[in-house]
Amino acid sequence: DLMKTLIIILLNICFLFSCSLPQNRNLENVYVLNLDEANNNDFYSMFDSVTYISLETQSDNEIGQISRILYHYGKYIVTDMLTNRVFIFNEDGKYYSKIDAIGNGPEEYVQITDITIDKYNERIKVLDAMQGKIVSYDLEGYSVGETKLPVVPAPLHFCQVEKEKYAFDFQRCSSEKEWQYNLFISSEYLSGEISKFLPYDKPLDVCFSPRVTLQEIDDEVLYIPLYSPTIYTIDSFELKPRYTFDFGDKWVDQDFVDIEWKDAGEFMNKLSRTKYVYYFNLLESGSHIYAEFMYKENKYRLVIDKETDHLFLQRETEAYKCHYTEIPMCCIGNKFVIPLTPFEYNSMIGDEAIQLPEDNNPILMFVTFKKF
Fold it and tell me: How confident is the model at residue 16 (pLDDT cuts 50, 70, 90)?
């Protein structure tokens, strides 16, 4: 129906820009980005190594479009936004199991809003914001219980922080004063001891977010808030600034954010005509920070070597376009994982290698970046 379609659109359009959150200019790690100095050369020149894993294709387990990838002890956990299912593959890409429980009943979901891993109990947890609940499944794909959330609207992203603690990203969606905070850290039930961070004065009618707002790296959880250039580290019940990006006057001002947008399409069209950075996405591996964003209808890619703090900024041109459309969706050690369609994979490997059929499941590309 219309409401379901709207939620799917809003959950999968990705960008990040500034709002009323603190800018944290006293951070030690402030990355100043001058877009006029961006390189116009080939982005692939930054790749140090590239490997591929083809996800096994079965007639009743075909993937439409990957929206999320998690890795857990040799298993790739893949969310398919088109079929509304979760697929689990072994490390070699062989099919293992799936979660397919669409419905309005107990231990079923209407829409997969987000997923996370309970690594202490070997559970996959599915957040269904439409029904306001979390449904838990084992790695075989069988349901093992559900948790009703006590707040409407429900959070849009979540992640396990400790054994009994979860971070919930609400993204300025509540009109109730008690819940007007971007981030909550509490039990899975959103009850008991609750820590609240980054308050706001009023909810937004239209909001978009980075594709991954909560991500785990080296036993730490990173948080990318809505409309903030600062990335945070969640440490137990604390939120600590990690680093920030300084785009100067190319970062959106408060007046633009405060406009009461009613139409998502109008908002997106207006963004493309502004002088502001938009569609900002970020992911961090053990060795590098990767980000990409749009500015005046041009795509930019940023790679930062964490050891040296040196950065590489590239502006995509017609002469140097990437062969793939998706951004990195997760990190495993120093590797960024990017899903490719069979057509994209075939164009990457060229005619010298074996071409895959067009109806093959997606291929996972693993990229490491050079030290510089």
Answer: very low
Give CA–CA dist 154/170, Å, rounded: 7
Q: Residue 229: name the closest of 291, 304, 300 by CA.
A: 291
Residue that is written with structure tokens 């009943």 in the block: 105
3-state secondary structure of 50: strand
pTM for the predicted model, two decimal places: 0.90
Distance CA 38, CA 26 (A): 25
d(CA 151, CA 180): 11
- Give the DSSP H/E element, type plus range, for residue 342: helix 342-349
| Separation of CA 98 from chain center | 21
- Span 54-89, pLDDT tens digits: 999 999 899 999 999 999 999 999 999 999 999 999
Asked whether 301 and 316 are in contact (CB, 8 A), the reply is: yes
The amino acid at residue 16 is L
Q: How far apart are CA 137 and CA 293, in angstroms?
A: 35
- According to the model, what pLDDT value does residue 208 have? 65
Q: How far is CA 138 from CA 117, 135, 174, 353, in A?
A: 10, 10, 32, 38
Q: Are strands 311-315 and 330-332 parallel, antiparallel or unpaired?
A: unpaired
Could you give the 3-state DSSP secondary structure of residue 269?
Answer: helix
Q: Sign (positive/negative) of CA torsion 361, 362, 364, 370?
A: positive
Distance between CA atoms of 63 and 85, rounded to whole angstroms?
9
SS3 343: helix
What percentage of the chain reaches a pLDDT higher than 90? 70
Nearest Cα to Cα of residue 299 among 40, 8, 10: 40
Nearest-angstrom CA–CA distance, 2 and 9: 11
For the chain, give the number of residues.
372
- CB-based burial, 301-340: b 16+ in 10 Å, e otherwise: bbbbbeeeeebbbbbbeeeeebebebbbbbbeebbbbbbb
Q: Which two tokens stand for residue 331?
A: 């990190």
Question: Comparing C-alpha atoms, which of 214, 233, 105, 97 is closest to residue 155?
Answer: 214
